[in-house]
Specification:
Elements (H helix, E strand, L loop, with lengths): L3 E2 L1 H8 L4 E6 L1 H7 L9 H4 L7 H9 L4 H18 L4 H24 L10 H15 L7 E3 L5 H7 L17 E2 L9 E4 L1 H4 L5 E3 L2 E7 L4 E4 L1 H4 L3 H10 L3 E4 L5 H9 L2 H14 L4 E6 L8 H8 L5 E6 L6 H15 L8 E6 L10
Parallel strand pairs: 1-12, 2-3, 2-10, 3-6, 10-11, 11-12
Antiparallel strand pairs: 4-5, 5-8, 7-8, 7-9
Helix pairs in contact: 5-6, 6-11, 14-15
């Protein structure tokens, strides 16, 4: 029988540590909008009904990454004049499919995400800010890591506090700042490893407001644009800037993409560094500890921090929760005897960040 703490009990127990850090999974977003966030990836949410042949492109390339598929189609269309000389229709078809794939990606993004922050009630944002205060507030110099690529965390950090009752001070540094060449741009840019050293918020798998512009990583800011998500994404993709997110594939495939992107790898190193601190502790909320995120979980299992608090939703004896318990115990077994890891489980319903009092 699994002993289940309340979230308040877990927080009280964590007071013995100098810092508490938070790792968010999809349950964080589901708790806010269960109607649209119950899906595993954009690929699984995409509708290929009118273009079934495009699924074969992903199969051949052994990827579920939209950017990879689009760029291969566009590059391939340019090469047909060499390898399929005289078949102009092939190049046109590949270009048309690349365009169609962009629209499928945009539709998947827009159909599975609130369009603007105002679609989320203010009360939910204020509650979530109170929740995040336990990790990003003045009394705790912790960090928040999210495996989600949606904008709910970002919107919460940017949201104004309740003017009638409270002000919640949160550290919001994510390593981005003004573009020195265009400080009034609609976006800010990642400041690099040195500039990101003091970042407190990390999108470990990227996010829908982060766009790879080739020479820099840009973060489109709601405050500066007030654009709907779909309009922002369409404009960026039409400029050959793609949202930076890692939601598809196995743990090894995700790790490979992380290692080849400076921003993602910096967040990964920050998590690793904090996991190596013996006086810190970690909370996991809304994550199933699935194998496809082993590249992250192993850093917790092989770290030196002493206490891990893991959320369970519903009856602890449910098969899904038993799998989480078993995986958490595997993390414990990874530890060197000199740095043992203790795991406690808490009731996710008592930690509901979107109704946190």
């Amino acid at each position: 029988m699994v002993a289940l703490l309340s979230f308040a009990e877990a927080i009280a127990d964590s007071e013995q540590f100098s810092k508490r850090h938070l790792l968010l999974g999809n349950g964080f977003s589901i708790a806010c909008r269960p109607d649209i966030f119950h899906y595993g990836s954009l690929f699984s949410a995409a509708d290929f009904t009118n273009h079934p042949e495009l699924v074969k492109v992903f199969d051949v390339l052994k990827t579920q990454d939209f950017e990879v598929a689009i760029k291969h189609l566009e590059a391939g269309s340019l090469l047909t004049s060499i390898y399929a000389r005289g078949h102009v229709d092939v190049a046109a078809k590949m270009q048309a499919d690349a365009t169609a794939l962009k629209e499928i990606l945009l539709t998947a993004i827009a159909g599975n995400h609130p369009d603007v922050p105002s679609e989320i009630p203010n009360e939910k944002f204020w509650a979530c800010r109170r929740f995040l205060n336990l990790f990003l507030g003045p009394s705790n110099d912790g960090q928040v890591y999210t495996l989600n690529y949606d904008l709910l965390l970002y919107w919460t950090l940017m949201h104004e506090d309740n003017p009638l009752s409270e002000v919640v001070v949160l550290a919001t540094n994510d390593g981005f700042g003004n573009d020195e060449d265009d400080p009034m741009a609609d976006y800010v840019v990642w400041q690099g490893e040195v500039g990101a050293h003091n970042a407190r918020v990390h999108f470990l798998h990227g996010a829908l407001h982060l766009f790879d512009a080739g020479t820099e990583l840009q973060k489109y800011t709601w405050i500066r644009t007030n654009d709907r998500l779909i309009d922002q994404a369409r404009r960026a993709i039409n400029d050959n800037k793609y949202p930076l997110f890692v939601t598809e594939g196995s743990s090894s495939q995700k790790k490979a993409k992380i290692r080849h992107n400076a921003y993602l790898y910096q967040g990964f190193k920050q998590l690793t560094a904090n996991a190596s601190q013996g006086k810190h502790c970690f909370f996991i909320l809304g994550h199933s500890l699935a194998d496809n995120d082993d590249h992250i979980l192993r850093r917790l299992g092989t770290g030196r921090f002493r206490k891990l608090y893991v959320s369970l939703f519903g009856d602890p004896e449910l098969p899904g929760n038993q799998q989480i318990v078993a995986k958490a115990n595997k993390l414990v077994a990874m530890r060197n005897d000199r740095f043992p890891l203790d795991v406690s489980f808490y009731n996710a319903a008592t930690a509901n960040p979107w109704a946190f009092a």
